[in-house]
Amino acid sequence: MDDNNPRREQTIRAAWLYHERGFNQQAVADRLGVSRSTVSRLLADAERDGIVRVTVTVPLPETASLAERLIEKYHLSGATVELVLNGETPRDTAATAMARRLEHIVATGSTTIAAGWGRTLGAAAQRARSMHTTGVTLVDAFGHTTTANIAPAVEVTNTLSIKFGARVMHIPSPGFAPSAEIAATFFDSEPVATALAHAREADMVMVAVGVVGAESLLVQAGYLDEAVMSEVIAAGAVGEVFGLYYDAEGNPVRPDALHPISLSLDDLRGSRRVVAAAGGAEKTAAVRGAIAAGIIDELALDNTLALDLLAAD
Asked: Whose CB has fewer CB within 10 Å in the chain, the N or C terminal residue?
């Protein structure tokens, strides 16, 4: 938004007087020559537009304890836990946890963030608050999927680029190729190779952890049918990231039907920081398998999944 816009200028002045100079709303209204209700709306706009960012610097004791115990038990570099509130799903809560983590990371300065796809990451991008940032770059870590009601990586990065005023780089390819041979041609193409190279070098890769079975996003989106999913489960798969399956020990399980254009599991192991969003106790086995595979450094999750992970043997 243009800083010369009169409404935005008035919003900035109201925010500055209220937050920086300590005037109450009536005093701000008197100085600006507007009503108190207008000041209230201006201050709300200031927070919505990222002119003012309200941050609670101390987490809830119960979520802080869960995060510390998860870090210790699973040897993670970090964990962000949010409480499931009335009317929310665990996925909503995990998305909020990821959004808060993203805000913290971009607030520290120049950084590159690579993003995957999925409902949780799409919701996280929507829940992230607008902020003024400097030197932030967003890049797809997964090709463009075209499924209904599921956020592709390009939507995640585009949404965040608007929220953070960041540069964005896309992978010009489909999310899945119809064969290994066609996938190879995409990986060899210069635009795809360049984008993936930036994703490999990113300061943070954000991923969502998927489950196996009928609730799998890949089954619901039509990329895998139930017969193939049954074969994947029979082979020992417990979860997936980027359409790449693994078993409880973290070993890869490769269905012939899927050929994702994305970072590989080895790429994720070699990444500087991989933050995984997951919501709900049904993702316990999938998260544990991803940790065993060495592809997760941090978790952004809800308290129900956190408790189940801590209870697991």
From this structure: C
